[in-house]
C-alpha cells in the first residue's frame, strides 16, 4: 500500500524569481547598449578584437532573453501535461544560453582571430574610439556584475554556504549565469584593450588576432562550465545533501516510523524538491492510522522544509528483500545499510552506534 501526500507546496516556484528577473533585466540592458557601441567601434577602427567583443556582447544579450524566458516558463503552475510543474524549463533555457555563448560568441571570436592572424596587417583607425567604448562597457558590465554578485552572495548566506560552493551547487542558474557572463565580459574587455594597445604601438595586427583568440577561449570555457551545470540539473540530480540528511532525520523522528528504509529526492526546479520515502511503520498501527500518519508526516515535512514541493510515502517492511536490494543497487551495500540506522543515530540525545 502506498500513500501520496501533498498536492503542491504553497510556496511558489523559485521564490527568488523577482530578484533574478531584476538581475537579468539589468544585464540585458547593459549588454544591449554595449553591443551597439562595440559594433560601431569595430567598424570605425577595423579592430578584430572589437569585432570579437561585439559578438561577445550580442551573445550575452541573446542569453538574457533566454534567461527571461526561463524565469517566465518555469513559474507556470503544474497542469495535466506537467503534473510536477515546469521547474526544469529554467535549466533547459539556461543550457540553450550556454550554447549561444559558444556558437555566437566563441566561434565568431575565433574566426576574427584567425582572420587577423592570416590576413595582411592593417592600420588601426581611431583607436581612441575603442578605448572610450571599452571604458564605458567596463563600467556598465561592472554594474551588472555587482548586481549579480549581490544576489548570489545573499542567497549563499541564506543557505549558509561559501560563495564558491554556492556557485557550484545552486539550483538557480539565472543569477549565476549572469555572474559568469559578466566576469567573462570584464576579462574580455581587458583582453580587447590590451590587443588594441599592442596593435597601436607595434603596428602589427597579430596582437589583435591573439586577443580575439583569447576571448574565444574565454567564452568557450564559460559556455562549457554553464552547460555542465545545467546538464547536471536536467538529469534528475538529488537535492542538497544537507536537505536530504535533515529530511532523513525528520522522518526518523516521527513516532509512527520504526525506520527509514529508502529515501529518494529529485530536484524538480529552483526551490522545488520531490521527496519519495519508504518507511517501516509501527506494526500495531491500523490501516486508518497509517493513512492519517502518512498525511500528517507529509504535511509537517512540507511545513518544516519549504523547498519540498511534493512528498510520496510508501509503508514497507524493513526487511523486504526486494526493496533492500534496490537500495543497495543505488547506494552500495555499505551506505544502504547505514540509511536505516542514520535516522535513529542522528536524533538528538541518541547514543552513538
UniProtKB/TrEMBL annotation:
Instruction: Tell me where it resides.
Output: Membrane
Highest taxon above the source species: Bacteria
Give any single GO term for biological process.
Answer: zinc ion transport
Entry's Pfam families?
Answer: Cation_efflux
Q: Is Signal one of the keywords?
A: no
Key words of the record: Membrane, Transmembrane, Transmembrane helix, Transport
Protein name (record): Cation diffusion facilitator family transporter
Source organism (scientific name): Kineococcus radiotolerans (strain ATCC BAA-149 / DSM 14245 / SRS30216)
